[in-house]
Amino acid sequence: MPHDTTLNSPEKARKSGGLNIAQVLHSPLVLPLAGLIVVSILMGLASENFFSVSNIMNVLRQVSINGILAVGMTFVILTGGIDLSVGAVMALSGTICAGLVVNMGLPGAVGLAGGMLVGVVFGLFNGALVAWGRMPAIIVTLATMGVARGLGLIYSGGYPISGLPPWMSWFGIGRIGIVPVPVILMFVIYVIAWVLLQRTPFGRHVYSIGGNETAARLSGVKTQWIKLAIYTISGLTSALAAVILTGRLMSGQPNAGVGFELDAIAAVVLGGTAIAGGRGLIFGTLIGAVLLGILNNGLNLMGINPYLQDVIKGFIILLAIYIGREWR
Amino acid sequence: MLEMKNIKKSFGKVEVLRGVDLEVRAGEVHALLGENGAGKSTLMKVLCGIISASAGTIRIDGEECAFANYDAAIAAGVGIVFQEFSLIPYLSAVENMFLARELRNRFGLLDRRAMRKRAQEILQQLDVDVPLNAPVSRLSVAEQQFVEIAKALSLDARILVLDEPTATLTPTEVERLFKVIRELRRKGVAIVFISHHLEEIFQICDRITVLRDGDYIGTCDVADVNNDTLVEMMVGRRIEQSFPPKLEILAETDIVLDVEAVQLKRGGPVSSFALRRGEIIGFAGLVGSGRSETAMALLGAFPGATCRMKLEGKDVKFTEPADALAAGIGLLPESRKEQGLITSFSILRNISINNYGKYRKNHWFIDLKKELACTQKAMRQVSVKATGPNDRLDTLSGGNQQKVVVARWINHDMKILIFDEPTRGIDVGAKAEIYQLMRELTKQGCSIIMISSELPEVLGMSDRVCVFRGGGIVATVEGEDITSEKIMTHATTGRQDHAA
Ligand SMILES: Nc1ncnc2c1ncn2[C@@H]1O[C@H](COP(=O)(O)OP(=O)(O)OP(=O)(O)O)[C@@H](O)[C@H]1O
Ligand SMILES: [Mg+2]
User: Fold this and answer.
1) Which residue does chain B place closest to A220, by CA atoms?
2) Domain presence at residue A248
3) What is the pTM of this model?
4) How far is A127 from chain B (nearest CA, A)?
């Protein structure tokens, strides 16, 4: 037989396809997970309250909005793009939702649908400009961030819109058993995202665009449509985050979510996704988001000056990325 | 002059060099031969300090040296032309050649004129016309190859390594390169030459060292071997290097693709050709003659080109390769690293990329088991040498990477496949298997457009040959007329009738 050195016999493949120690150690999840454990232990030592069930649920609830925004951000960053408009789109979506219900007297469900539509429209707009307009994502979404923020302020006159039907608070502060509704929502979104990325051709194509766009395009990947789809997903997750935000605040807040895009990016990067695209796992992002949430929570519990908290977080992110640099 | 002794190297548990010796004298061209994945490139990277050996010694002029990085090697007079180019896509040819070795003027600023002049001199030696100011990403692969060669020549190295420099060059350009190599040899430079084209070895080399699977097999004079013994040394057995018999293509076989007019840029020549079912058309021509560009234009992937064509009698127009794929036309691009592969991904993901149609589950999902099985089958068909389908592409040897690009297309039910330099960097044994596969595909009714710079390949595989010059087809030859003389005269002067 020619090439008896060809080692792709079935057993070999099963070995490299199944789990083994070396492969687990090389999983991109290892480092974020280690970070999460270390930080949790430190926080647990610093404050005995930290590991109580109620505090953990509390942290997860606080994480949920950023966690959901970071899902869309993961899709976008995996293709090598970026979406700076998520925070502003979330605010606009919530504002429109509240406006439809409060100002126009429409049913709550219509308000929610309207909010979703806002997210999708902005996502489509971003995606179309990036894919067919061939404009850099960072510029496009920087511009639409301004547009979304401005539209929200114009529509509301700059004031929160309150007076929503009480049942809408379920999305923000409701619970099923002991688990807060937003946390459940977040997990559901992560599972869907995982299936999309790991089990469908669409997901593989997302990765391939980040890996080598030219090669992907020439082998027949519909790169433009995929880009349209991922920015739309990001718009949609912004709108879903808006549902939780609106439910929690029981009002549409045109000024909400300033700087949330940066937290979302931080979660994605802490989760081990390469900022240049092509590499990363959605559950890494979840770990990254929780890690950030724990830091916030722990630093608060310790009673550290909020300004100093930002400085500490900044350095922790730098440290994490420095360690992750050589890992892969 | 150069002496490498008992070099060993492993990546993780895989031992890729098991005690290899190499001795190169001043003023000789030394061939380094071996199958894909034998360890040639790895050995050369060890020499240049790009990777470090696990064991062994390197002596230059009797002095032991181990370079910490490529810069140190350059300082000691070692230069290399990389198999996978080392060019920065957005920099121009000149900028690439002098990257990190920029010439400076009195004020410490870049001396652009001097660099340009030097670049021109070197390229003139090679007798090629490469745009100096355009970003190299816009150049064809062969032009990039020349920039890469020029970059190494600009080092004025005493020891020069050429890792498959001729893989995408046509015979004319190879001859030009050889002229420069002979000149260097006369000046006493020690040259290591790697190639899978054995006839080139006999043309230019003095001595030969053969590796097989990381083992040192032996060193001998070119005069002492012939083609067959050489192949036997490389592969460990005899190979009938022959092309599978051509199929009888009848004149009335239906035309699959009728290209009525394709024009690369406004005002350029307009070409037309027709592809019959089960036929292999070869595209021959010199570097820069527009072969690859024409192929890209058919898929709508060459900006500025216009194309009018009929697929199975229906007018079609593609704006994206994805449209072409949906219509049954696939492209194997010229440059595996830039256009073909995602080198940070696994073999599996690279082969799967456009094969998902075959392993769907419930329409939306990927059937992972089937994906693995199909991938392994494809890997076996082209004999990819790797530890498994989850190996990252950038741990494969150049030739094995190329096999992965081929593997992506072989199990598709495509109507038309466009293969641009399909066997670039692939060793003799595996090449024969790929030729066989291509014939199998045509037997199943697929038609192939094969762009190749390797004349024997064009002659042996094509049912018809379109010869390109200056951006368009200048002649189409078939049957008995497919000879190297005819093709070369069309490709270079086009005045064959007068000459004959
Ligand atoms: N970074 C790496 N990690 C693991 N294995 C590697 C790495 N680089 C090379 N190899 C392995 O080393 C072996 C030799 O590779 P090398 O590139 O030297 O082959 P080659 O002789 O140049 O082949 P080709 O003719 O295809 O260019 C291959 O089997 C390859 O898979
Ligand atoms: Mg090599």
Assistant:
1) B322
2) yes
3) 0.88
4) 17
